[in-house]
Amino acid sequence: MFGRRSTPLGRPGCSWARKHPPRQCRSLCIAATGSGSTAVWMTKGTARPVRQDTLRPIIFHGTGAVRRRCPTARREECLMSASIRESVLPLGVRDYRNLFFANMASFLGDQVVPVALAFAVLQVTGSASALGIVLLSRTVPMALFVLTGGVWADRLPRQLIMVGSDAVRFVSQGIFAALIFANHAPMWAMVVLQAVHGTATAFYRPASSGLLAQVLPRELRQRGVGLMYSMAGLTHVAGPAIAGVLLAVTSPAWALAIDAASFAVSAFLLTRVSPAERGPAKERQSFVRDLAEGWNEVISRSWLRSWILNFALFQFALLAVFWVLGPVVAKTSLGGGTAWAIMSASVGMGSLLGSLVAVRWHPKRPLVAVGGSLLLSPAVLLGLAAPAPVYALAGMSFLFGAVIAFADAIWESVMQNHVPERVLSRVIAYDYLGSTVLRPIGLAVVGSVAATITTQVTLVGASVLYLAVTLAALAMPITWTLSSHAPLQPEEAMASADLVETQPHVGPVSGTSHAAPALGERGR
């Protein structure tokens, strides 16, 4: 009953039950059945359901349980009670908790790198052009190989791919740091090492999002994704600050070495993940067929097609325009760099709030919530077109960041709940590629467009274009009919059946992404 694979979705409760006398051995396990949840008390190898009205006050706790009288259940049935806030429920699942901290380690290291890498390359070469080439060598492979990473994440254990990616990045960044320490870093070596790093990241991302769906029941996935985005927002703020301190007291090489060490920590934590079984493996087919199968899953769902297109235009019409023309307006009309720094910081703080809202609020019509929130995003461009006072633009930038983070978190949880697990990583890879493919084009052309038709017209035109596209997506019937729940997938049904086995099996219970990307990096 309490084996490694027999209770994959309720492991924390079952682990707690094994450590207590038989009389108290009543652990709550969650089985995803149909569109809701069924709570099952495990007592001496038997199972009996708990009434739905008693489910809410009985929740996970990662290391133990608090005996507390539940208002709708007998005291002896409340060993697993509400000891932590609902918003952090996923952290009570040991596998998710280790996945969360693994991603935190690697995210924090990666947020230290942009500042440190720039000074490291300039220290060796003294050339801004060389810095641009090194940065490009890291980002291009991420776009080129993300689909390949999605295919292999659906073929092999996702945990294995993530550990391998961390190992590769540990080696590449470690060698890079050693070369900077030695003050002997040939240009070709820096380009190759960053290309290897970018390729490994392309494999990590689809696997991370797919693994999150394996370690959490669907009822907790939106909270889990929201917590990941909240953590990513914190590292996005803390990373550059840490890099600044390191550069002030040491050399860029130490910052790169810390980034390498973060991947070692991440890999160690990921080895402690025991994800739920993915169901019987299908017959292996060619790489091209696997790629085509993922593409068919995308184009066969109108909501996927329309919203990926929407996010691509968001990158092209809003993000590119904001990051290129925002500094221009700040310099010409708002007093210079201070105004832009305030706006940029406001975006980061807003992203943290948006991800926290996604943790707490679970809309029944998630695509309506995504589209409705994105309708607010052009406000900051219209404010720049006026231009509005700095304090007003700071508020609009805060709203802009909150909308991006909220929409990202809700969208990812929708994909995890409505896309079959066997193709989830490939679909996420297509989403990432489709959402970001227009970004470099927008960054390249927006300056020329603004010089031709003026900055104000460009800002207003981009806002109107995106509002029209979003309203069209909201007008689709599927946007209003797609619910936050989805039919149980076959592999989840098998896991639910395991939860009510009557023969106990005592074995070790071990456990550790989505990798949630930095703001604006993956999609919206």
UniProtKB/TrEMBL annotation:
Would I find Cell membrane among this entry's keywords?
A: yes
One GO term in the molecular function aspect is:
transmembrane transporter activity
Q: Where does the UniProt entry say this protein principally localizes?
A: membrane
**Keyword Cell membrane recorded:** yes
Membrane disposition: Multi-pass membrane protein
Supply the InterPro entries for this chain: Bacilysin_exporter_BacE_put, MFS, MFS_trans_sf
Q: Name one Pfam family in it.
A: MFS_1
Q: Which domain of life is it from?
A: Bacteria
Which Gene3D superfamilies does its entry note? MFS general substrate transporter like domains (1.20.1250.20)
Q: Where in the cell is it found?
A: Cell membrane
Q: What keywords does the record list, in alphabetical order?
A: Cell membrane, Membrane, Transmembrane, Transmembrane helix
Q: What is this protein called?
A: MFS transporter
One GO cellular component term of this record is: plasma membrane
